[in-house]
UniProtKB/TrEMBL annotation:
The chain crosses the membrane at residues 41-61, 93-113, 120-138, 158-177, 203-224, 244-269, 281-298. Keywords: Cell membrane, Membrane, Transmembrane, Transmembrane helix. Its main location: membrane. This is Branched-chain amino acid ABC transporter permease. It comes from Candidatus Avidehalobacter gallistercoris.
Amino acid sequence: MKKLLTKKNLAVLLLIIVVYAVLLACDQLGVFNRQSKALLVPIGINIMLAVSLSLLVGFLGELSLGHAGFMSVGAYAGCMFTIHMDLPMAVELPLAMLIGGVVAGLFGFLIGIPALRLKGDYLAIVTLAFGEIIRSVLNNFSLVGGAGGLNGIPKYSNYTIVYVAMVITIIVIANLVHSRHGRAICSIRDNVIASESMGIPVVYYKLLAFVAAAVFAGVAGVLYGHNLGILKPSTFDFNKSIEILVMVVMGGMGSLPGAVIAAVVITVLPEALRGLSDYRMLIYAVVLIAMMLLNNNARFNEFKQRLFSKRAARHGAKLTKEGE
C-alpha cells in the first residue's frame, strides 16, 4: 500500500483529476464550441492507439503496419455485440469493450506466433498484409454490412468514458514498461542475442507486447464505433496504420508522453487549419516534418536529457534532505 501511495503516484492521480475537471468545467461554461467538443473523443481514441503501438514499435523495436487491422476486428466484434443485445448502456458498453479487446488480442496472438519470429521489413510486410486481408474480408462480408458499413451502432461514447479508458491504457502500459517485463522488452530491442544468452524468453515477451498492443487497439476501435454510429472497412485502411505509426515516430521512439502529445497534435492540427483550405495540408505536412526533425536532432535530445537529469538530481536531493 505504501508503494502505491508515493508522491509520484499521488501527483499523477491529482493531474488526472485536474485535467478531467478542467475539461468538464470548459464544457459546462461553454468554452468548447461544437467542433472542439467533437474532437475530445477522437483525441482520446488516438492517444490509446498511439500509446499501445508505442509499446510494440518504440519499446520492443518491431515495426508493425497492421494496427488498424486490430482496431477494426475489435471495433466490429464489440459493435456487433451492442447491436444485437438489448442491455443497459452501463452493462453493454463495458462488455463490448471487453469483447473487442479479447477478439483483437486473440488475433494478435494468432498473427504474432509466426510473425514475431520475423524481423524488420519482413514483420512489417506480414502485419501490413494482415491489415489489408482483414479490410478485404470486411468489405465482402455481408453479415457486417460489407462495403456499405455496419449501421445502427448506439452512440455510447462520450469524452468521460473515453477519458477513463485512455487513462487506464496509459497507466497499464506505463506500469508494464517500468516493470521487469518492460525491462526485458527493452533489452530485446537493444540486443536480441544478449537477451537470449541471459535467459530472457524472447518470443514470449515479443508475443506479450504484440497481444497487449492489439488488445488496446481493439478497445479503441469499439469506442470509435460507438462514437460515430457506423463502421466502414475503408476507415481501417493502410493510411490509418501509417497515421498511428506517425504519432509514435513523431512523439519519439519509446516515449509515452511524446506519443500522447503527438496524438493530440495530429488530431487537432487538421481541424485547426480547416479555415486555410488552400494551404491546410501543406502547413500540416510542414509542421509534422519539423517536429520529426526536431525530435531526431541530437542537440535537442541532449538538451532534453540535461533538463530531465537536472530535474532528477533536484528530486533526489530533496528526498535525501527529507530522509535526514
